[in-house]
Amino acid sequence: MPNERERDDHPDEPTVDAVGELSKALETVERARGHLYAFHQLMGTADFTLGGAADRLAKAGHQAWADEIHDEMVGRNVLEGRWTFQVVEEFDDTYYDPFRRIERRVRDDLVGGRRHMYEARLKEERRSKGRPGHESAPGT
Question: Region annotation Disordered: residue ranges (predicted)?
Fold first, then answer.
């Protein structure tokens, strides 16, 4: 259950670290989701290429092979009952969207909605203050 306390403008280090870790987990899920979309697009391309290969086999006089490829493989589900768009949609609805919502709620409650607070603190610790290319923000 979310903490009902007032938001702290300056959250403590353990809170910033914990929220940073939560955001890091979400960033990893974002990357995984990108790979899932790449899988979706690659499988679509493969299916159309496979259909083209079957058509070429037919034109080359190999109708039986062309028919088998069309019947067995073109348009085939990648998982039981699912094409890749359905896998992507199910992932989004079942895991990705709920994760994004809870990560946002935690950030809103614990760090005033600020994103990348952990990284911002790291930047301040690691940059060489006053040196070109080490500004704290654009235009400073």
Answer: 121-140
Tell me how far apart the alpha carbons of residues 133 and 130 are, in angstroms, rounded to a whole number. Answer: 9
Coil, strand or helix at 2:
coil
The total of structural domains in the chain comes to 1
CA 83 to chain CA mean position, Å: 19
- pLDDT (tens digit per residue) in 40-73: 999 999 999 999 999 999 999 999 999 999 999 9
Q: Please indicate, yes or no, if residue 128 is contained in any of the structural domains.
A: no
Summarize pLDDT for 69-117 with one digit per residue, the tens: 999 999 999 999 999 999 999 999 999 999 999 999 999 999 999 999 9
Give the whole-angstrom CA distance, residue 43 versus residue 38.
Answer: 8
Domain that includes residue 111, residue range:
13-122
